[in-house]
Every structure is written in structure tokens, then in C-alpha cells.
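[recover] target loaded
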């Protein structure tokens, strides 16, 4: 009889036979945040007691918790994350959240890019109750390729001093019925990581506010509404050699 060994990580198990390595099964596991603490990287804050941090694992914040606070203090790379709680607060800090599956990151609470630089790699759905806030002087990188925004995403949400950036690291589509808001300051920048990255604002979605949309570092397709509605101007400034395609509305009705 050939010797064999069983290796197990979470619910993934395989058998190593003398002739080779043969995977037997790998079942996805969802960890539910239980609110017993705030730190992502503590197993006891999840049920079952396992930190969601790798492929095959997902994270869920239920609506049964009262004002839960979740503090990202590592860079997990998981299948999906759902904040199914409008009272939830999620701090990204200075870390990267990578989402592998098309279910993506669903946010029904308040998510904050609050500390220097945060990154979300993967599809994002911001629900009607969802808020994604980039604090003054901070940066949020989004890879997308799709952001379904039915809530509000705000650049420089605290109207603070210091350049504040929403940077997309590939071509990106904003759709849904929500608003991408650039607050009423001179410090706002929405742009590509390189000047050929294209932002598409889909029909039904609104980009509004003031200051730099483009910063000479993106291509632009507008099928929705782009609106200057603050006291300071909204400067639409795509890359010089990139064509702007507009089949939607661009208008000014600021103070």
C-alpha cells in the first residue's frame, strides 16, 4: 500500500501520494464578523474562528449587529466581502483589499479611506445606503473594472486640506443610480494611474462637485450626468491626446 498524507487548510484538503499530489476537494468558507472586537486579523472576531485572508474564504458583516466597527489591519485577498449593515463602519487604513470573485465587495455601510493610501482590487457594489469616503489628504486606488454605485462616493469627505485622490488603476466603469461627489475644495482629484486609463460614467450615474476630474491623466466617456454644482469650478481635464466621448449631459449649476 502506498503511503499517503493528509494536508488541511480551512476546508481544503488534498492527498499526497507517492506518485504525485492529487487534490480531493476544496469548499469555500464564509466567516461572519461577530462584533466581539474590531480588528480584522483576530480569529475570535469571526465565526467560525478563522481570519478571512485568502482565496476560498469570504467575509460577511450581518445586519443583526448594532453599529459594528471593522478595522482593516492587514491586506486580505479573498473571494468576496459583504457589509450587509447600514450602521457598519469599515476603516481601510493603509491596506489593500483584494476581491477575486464577481460577487465583489458589497458595501451597505460606511467605508473610509482614512489613512494615507488604501486600495480595493475587484468589483465594488455600493448600495443605496452605502457611503465610501476618502478623507482629506488621502488616496483610494480602485482597480474595478466595475463600480456599481447606488449610494455616494465622496472625494475629500471631510473637506480637509491636502490633495485627495481617487485613482483608478485600469479602465473603470461607474454605473448605478448614485453619485460620485467631489467636495467643495481645490484639493480634489479623480484620475487614472496612467493617462490612458478610461473612466466611463454610465447612463443613470452622476459625477458632480468641484475641481479636478481628469488632472490630465485619464480618458473619459460620459453617458450619464457630469455636473458642476459647488461654489468652486469643476475642471474636466482629460489627457491631451485622449478623445472625450459624451452622449450624456455635462452642465454647470453651481453657486
Amino acid at each position: 500500500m502506498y503511503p499517503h498524507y493528509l494536508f488541511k487548510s480551512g476546508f481544503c484538503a488534498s492527498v499526497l501520494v507517492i506518485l504525485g499530489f492529487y487534490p480531493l476537494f476544496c469548499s469555500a468558507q464564509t466567516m461572519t464578523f461577530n462584533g466581539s472586537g474590531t480588528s480584522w486579523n483576530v480569529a475570535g472576531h469571526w465565526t467560525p474562528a478563522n481570519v478571512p485572508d485568502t482565496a476560498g474564504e469570504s467575509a460577511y458583516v450581518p445586519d443583526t449587529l448594532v453599529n459594528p466597527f471593522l478595522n482593516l489591519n492587514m491586506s486580505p485577498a479573498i473571494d468576496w466581502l459583504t457589509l450587509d449593515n447600514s450602521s457598519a463602519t469599515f476603516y481601510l487604513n493603509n491596506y489593500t483589499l483584494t476581491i477575486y470573485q464577481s460577487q465583489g465587495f458589497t458595501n451597505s455601510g460606511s467605508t473610509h479611506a482614512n489613512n494615507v493610501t488604501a486600495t480595493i482590487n475587484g468589483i465594488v457594489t455600493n448600495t443605496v445606503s452605502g457611503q465610501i469616503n476618502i478623507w482629506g489628504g488621502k488616496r483610494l486606488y480602485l482597480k474595478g473594472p466595475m463600480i456599481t454605485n447606488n449610494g455616494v462616493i465622496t472625494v475629500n469627505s471631510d473637506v480637509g486640506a491636502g490633495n485627495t485622490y481617487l485613482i483608478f488603476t485600469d479602465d473603470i466603469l461607474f454605473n448605478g443610480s448614485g453619485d460620485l461627489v467631489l467636495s467643495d475644495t481645490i484639493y480634489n482629484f479623480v484620475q487614472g494611474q496612467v493617462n490612458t486609463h478610461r473612466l466611463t460614467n454610465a447612463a443613470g450615474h452622476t459625477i458632480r462637485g468641484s475641481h479636478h476630474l481628469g488632472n490630465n491623466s485619464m480618458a473619459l466617456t460620459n453617458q450619464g450626468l457630469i455636473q458642476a454644482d459647488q461654489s468652486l469650478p469643476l475642471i474636466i481635464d482629460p489627457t491631451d491626446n485622449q478623445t472625450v466621448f459624451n452622449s450624456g449631459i455635462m452642465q454647470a449649476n453651481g453657486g
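[recover] notes: DSSP finds no helices and 31 strands in the chain.
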